[in-house]
Amino acid sequence: MQPDNNDRSVEDSIDRRRLLQALGAGGAIAIAGCSGDGGSGSDGGDGDSESGGGGSDGSTQSVQFLTMGVGDNIKQFFEENNAAFEDEHGVDVEFTSVTWDNARQTVNNRVDGGEAPDVSRWPARWIPQLVGKDALEPLDDMMDGEFGEQFYDGVAEGTMYNGSHYGVPWAASNKCLYYNKDVFETAGLDPEDPSLDSWQDMLDAATQIRDSDASVPALGLAGADAIETGSQYYHYHWSHGADLVNDEGMPVVNSSGAVDALSLYTDLHLEHNVTQSSPLSSTRQDIRQLFENGDLGMVIGHVYTGLNITAAKENGDVDFDYGIVQVPRGPEGRYSLFTIDTLAILSQSEHKDLARDLIRFYFDEERRFQYSKQKGFLPVVEAVGERSYFSESKNWGPFVEAGQYARARPKLGNFSEFNDRMVQAIQEALADRKSPQKALNDAQSDLEDAME
Amino acid sequence: MSLAEEYTETSDDSRLERGLAYVQRNSRAYLLIAPAAVFLLAVVGYPIIETFRLSLYQSPADSNIETFVGLQHYVEIFNSDIFYRLLWQTGRWVVAGVAGKTLLGLLIAVHLKGDIRGRKFFRTAFLIPWGIPYAISAVVFRWIEHPQFGYLNAILLKLGIIEQGIGILGNPSLAWLGVVVADIWIGTPFMAIIFLAGLQSIPQELYEAAAIDGAEKWHQFRYITLPQLKSVVLIATLLSTIWTFVSFDVIWTMTGGGPISSTATLVIHIYQVGLQNGNLGRGAAYSVIGFLFLFGFAIIYLRIYTRGGDEL
C-alpha cells in the first residue's frame, strides 16, 4: 500500500462516551445486528429516487462526486465502482479528486460560487461551518431509517450537528504507538514485551535507545507548521487532563495539565534529545515515513503505517519487524485521536435522489470492506467490522482495541484557526522561544479574542 | 516631447486643451486598445472593487451573513503587532529576493554575453529553472533542505561537517533564508535573459572607443554597461519586486509560512486568514493594504524613473 496524504482525511467529531457505547468496553468492534438496505448497495434506492438515468430531455443525467486525497491505492476502487454505478443507473458520475491541501478552499469556492457538487466527502469537523452556510442537506431520512442502522452508533453520532445528520460516516481512523522491534533489541529492550504503557515508559525506552548502539532516533515528534502537529500533540494534552474547549465552547488550553503536557512534548526534544533532529521541520508524514523506512524507534501512527510496512516487506523494500501498542497513558488517562470523514449531499444539488442512490451504492457491504482494507481506515459499518480480517489482523487488532480510548477534536466552526494557534504555541515551545506556560497563555489569550 | 513633459510646466487651462488635443490625435490608438481595456476592467477592475467592498464587512467562515463594519478591519490590522511583523518579513523577503536575482542575473548575463565556449548551451540551461513550475521547484528545494531526507544534509554529514541533520526550514531564524534561496534560483533566469537582451543592444563601438582610450574592463562596466542598462534594470527590478511581493507558491510549498509564522509574508497571511480560516472580510482588508503598498511603490518608482525624461 502506498503512503498517501490521507492522514488528514478522517476527521473529527465523536465523543469518547459515544464511541465507548459503540465499540464496547472490550474495545473490539462490536458484534451487532447490521445493515438495512445499506447492504444491498446496488438496489437503486428506496423508490423515491430517479432510478432511470435519462433526463427529461433525453440527455444523460450526471451526478457530481467530489472527494479528497485519492491516492494510487484507492484510485482503481473509485474508477471501477463509479463505472458500475453508471452502468446500473444509466447516468454519468463526474468524479473529481482534489488534494487535501486544496480541499477546503475547493469546497468553499464551489459552495460560494453556486457550483457545489452533488455528493462530497470531507472531514466531519467541517460540518458546522458548512451548515452555517446552509450548504448541506440534512440526511435524517437516511440515517434515522434502516440505512442508518448499519453504522456503529457512536460513529453515526459523529455526523450529527444541531440535532440532524449532515452526512453519512464514510471512514474512521485512530492512532496507536508503533515501535521498531529491531531497534528495541539493539537497545537491550524486550521487543516482545516493550513496556510502553505510560509516557514515562516511552521516555525511558527512548532514553535507552538514545544511549545504545542503535543508529536511529528513538522517537518521532511532529512540529512542522501543519494541522497534524496538533493531532500528534493532543494525545499528550488530553492524557494530562487538559482540554481544548469547555462545555460552553470557550478555549481552555492553558490549564496546569496542558502546561505539563506541552512541557513533556518539548522536553522530549530539548532536554532528553530522544527525537529526530529538527522536529520543527517534520510533519507527521515525515516521521511516519522515517518509521516506515526503519529509521526511527517509535512513532504514533495510523493503521496504514503497518499496512505500508507489510507491503514494503513483501516487496523486499524494507526488512525490519515492528510492534503496535496503545498510545501511552498520562496521569489522567489514555486517548487515541479519533477522526471521521463523512459523505454529504449539498443543498445546491439538483439531483438529490440520485445522490442518495450513489451513497447507498457505495455502502454495499463488500464495497465498504474493500475500501477499508485497501485504504487502511477503520470500518464504520458494523457488519464489515465484524469480519475476521480486522479482528485477527496483527495490524488492525490494536486499532480495533484502541476504540475504547477514542477521542475527537471539538466541533468548532473555526477549528482550523483554533488549531493553527495551538500549533503556533507548540512550535514556540519546541523552538525554545517561549516556555510552555507562556506559549499556552498567549494562545489562550488569542483564542479568547478569536472566539468572541 | 515625452508624455511626462507634456503634462508638466503648463497651466491648468492649457493642460486641458493639450490633453484633449492629445486624445484627438491618438483617437485611433485609443479605439484599438478599447476592447482590451474593457476586458481588463472586467477581469481586474471588478475583483479590485469587490475586494474593497468586502473589506468593509464582517464575513465569518460559518455563515452567509455579511455585516457592515466600516473600517474596523483596517483599524484592528494597524493596531496589531502581527501586521508590522508581516511588513518586516515581507520587506526582508522582497529586498533579499530581488537583490539576489538582480545581482546574479547581471553576473550571468555579463558572462553569457562574452565569447565563451558552450555559450548557446548555457543560455538554454540557465533558462531551465524559470521553465519549471514554481511549486515543483519549491518541493525540490524543500527536500534538498530536509534534515532527514535532504541532499544538503546528506552531503554535510558525509563530509563530517555536521553530526546530525540541520533543519533549515524548521529554524525560525534561518527558514526565510532557505526559502529566499529557492526564490532566487527560480527568478534569476528571467533577470539574466532580460539583462542579456539589454547588454546586446549596447553598441559595441562604445566599448571599442573606451578600450582605445585605455578604459579597463571594470571602468567599461561602470561607465558604459550600467548606464546603458539603466532602463532595463529599472523595469526588470520593478517587475521582479511586484512578482516577489505577491509570490505565494514557493513559500507556501516550502514552509506554509512557518515555523512560528517566521516565513509568512502579507500574501501568505491573506491566504491563511481569508481562505484557510474563512475570514474573507479581514483577508480582503489585508489584500487592499497590500494592493495600496504595491500601487504606491510602482508610482514612486516610475516617478523616479521618468524624472530624467525617459519614457517607458
Automatic annotation (TrEMBL), chain B:
Report how it sits in the membrane.
Multi-pass membrane protein
Where is the major localization of this protein?
membrane
GO CC list:
plasma membrane
| Family according to the record | Belongs to the binding-protein-dependent transport system permease family.
**UniProt domain ABC transmembrane type-1: residue ranges:** 87-301
Q: What is this protein called?
A: Sugar ABC transport system permease protein
Chain segments annotated as transmembrane = 29-49, 93-112, 124-144, 174-197, 232-252, 284-304
Keywords for this protein: Cell membrane, Membrane, Transmembrane, Transmembrane helix, Transport
Q: Give GO terms for biological process.
A: transmembrane transport
Checking PROSITE patterns in the record gives: ABC_TM1 (PS50928)
Q: Where in the cell is it found?
A: Cell membrane
**The species this protein was found in:** Haloarcula marismortui ATCC 33799
- Gene3D superfamilies reported for this sequence: MetI-like
At the highest ranks, the source species' classification is: Archaea, Methanobacteriati, Methanobacteriota, Stenosarchaea group, Halobacteria
